[in-house]
Amino acid sequence: MGSSAQDEASRASPSEAPHHNYESLQVTAAQKHILHVQLNRPEKRNAMNKAFWSEMVECFNKIAKDADCRAVVISGAGKMFTAGIDLVDMASDLLQPQGDDVSRISWYLRDLITRYQETFNVIEKCPKPVIAAIHGGCIGGGVDLITACDIRYCAQDAFFQVKEVDVGLAADVGTLQRLPRVIGNQSLVNELAFTARKMMAEEALGSGLVSRVFPDKEVMLDAAFALAEEIASKSPVAVQGTKVNLVYSRDHSVADGLNYMASWNMSMLQSQDIIKSVQAAMEKKELKSVNFSKL
After folding, report:
1. Which residue among the candidates 7, 55, 66, 144 is catalytic per the annotation?
2. The overall pTM is greater than 0.70
3. Low-confidence ranges of the chain (pLDDT < 50)
């Protein structure tokens, strides 16, 4: 069986990824070096329940250390990406916080919020590129999630809502910090966050929230996996080093970013991956044919 036929077979029948057993997520090995993480509560519109917040941390910490994984696609099972936080399941934590007085309740809530923030921080901290593939609604916590991802594709039926003001709170797990950096338009961010209005797919494309829009979920997922396959064909030393430095440079000055990059590459330039990549280019071979060591 040729490599393209093998890729098609792998895409058609993904296998369960070992060591990834969750209540709210399904993780499969979609293709060689590519994991597919699905929000997997379709009967609840993939609402984020108590299990989700801890399982995402466990999942992406494992992916970060998975030497065989080079790229990740994250999507939602069923009719939509996610309806956001599961208010029914989370009500006891949010509406009946533990503590004897205001100070103790405040400490409890601060700990809770920081733990929920880590649920999406782990996506950004994971050195493997993460591609969000969004269809249907991406509401509330869904926006927190996708803004922590590296690349965002969506289907034509997708819409995005910073929904938190409609339930009486300010978004507190990443949207207000990351969305302005993602789309670079503070006026639009303010409008979305103050009103909770829907942003449809074409507006999301025009604003830079997503990089491509596709006719439907199936076509979008095919494109997301094709992109992941392209990324996975490159040197993992190069790709993961690029992600680490892009994230660092976003949060630091140009001078600091350049200094960090110099310190990073003084060791990474000694990788065998450079020799292999240059040799493949000179021999006019595709990088897919190069056997890069695991990382």
Report:
1. 144
2. yes
3. 1-12
